[in-house]
Amino acid sequence: MTSDAANTRWAAARSERGRSFGAVAADYAAWRPGYPSELVAFLAGGEHGHTVRRRILDLGAGTGQLSESLLAAGHDVVAADPSADMLAQLTARLPGVPTLVARAEDLPLPDDDVDAVVAAQAAHWFDPVAAAREFRRVLRPGGAVGFVWHMRKDSAPWAAALDQLLAADARDQQGDRPEGNQAVVDAFAAQLDAEVTIRTVRWVHRVPPEAVVGRVASSSRIALLDDAGRDAYLGQVRELLATHADTRGRDELDVSYLTSAYRLTPR
Asked: pLDDT, tens digit, for every residue of 178-202?
């Protein structure tokens, strides 16, 4: 296969993954972690403990993990996602938040409508050229764009074993790699002619073992499997947690995250 053919195939697979999350919406809602409050404040354009009420578009909002934190911080939130199934989970969680079935590249909002556009675990699915054009259109003067990604940062042997298990199907998962996230930010910064500031927080999420399984179940790689493939894949994760010396018989596990937030301010 030529390199062009391979790139076309993986671009198609990436696009298909980006549209697939509706199939795992319930797992996404149940098991995806939220975001540190200081990063939520940073994305919204303020500092922790000093909130100025803003109108914010949560883009690729999924089931509402970031929307919930923005709402709790006192902001007006509009949530958009390509998946109606994901937004149904968000509405069940946050019935007062208006939702839009929409893509980053075609936003059904008027010009100068929001103070910030934010995206959690989602910007790597956007087309920087078309999406940046829409961001500039809907942002009010002085507005900004914020991206945030979680990455597991754990040196524990069980976490390394899990990473090895998942790595075989991680190709083109930009959101799982810091260099991939930085490339996304750089592409948007170029399109927006934006200044970029970064905040990073290391933190620990204490969860039952089934939450680790559920987090894997909510990924796009799982969404594209049939029922038998999904059961087999998640069965490997459960077996690892049930048999590994560090996790066998434990009711709770510490999952370490490095969460990085990027604020892009167009010049």
From this structure: 688 999 999 999 999 999 999 999 9
Give just the sign of the alpha carbon dihedral 44, 46, 51, 54: negative
Distance in angstroms (rounded) separating the CA atoms of residues 67 and 184: 22
Alpha-carbon distance 139 to 223, whole Å? Answer: 33
| pLDDT at position 33 over 90 | no
pLDDT, tens digit (0-9, with 9 covering 90-100), for 132-143: 999 999 999 999
Residue 80 · residue 61 · CB < 8 Å: yes
Q: State the Cα–Cα distance between residues 160 and 86, nearest whole angstrom.
A: 30
- Rounded Cα distance between 17 and 119, Å, is 17
pLDDT of 79 above 50: yes
Structure-token match 């969460």, residue found: 259
Total Cβ atoms within 10 A of residue 106: 10
For residue 105 the two structure tokens come to 């590249």
**C-alpha distances out from residue 104 to 53, 59, 161, 200, Å:** 23, 7, 35, 25
Which one-letter DSSP state was computed for residue 49?
Answer: T
| AA letter at 225 | L
C-alpha dihedral, 185 to 186 to 189 to 193, nearest 10°: 180
Encoding tokens for residue 223?
Answer: 């969404």
Per-residue pLDDT, 9:
33
What's the rounded Cα separation, in Å, for the pair 77 and 54? 8
Q: Alpha-carbon distance 149 to 213, whole Å?
A: 19
pTM: 0.81
Judge contact between 202 and 153, C-beta under 8 A.
Answer: yes
- pLDDT confidence band for 155 (50 / 70 / 90): confident
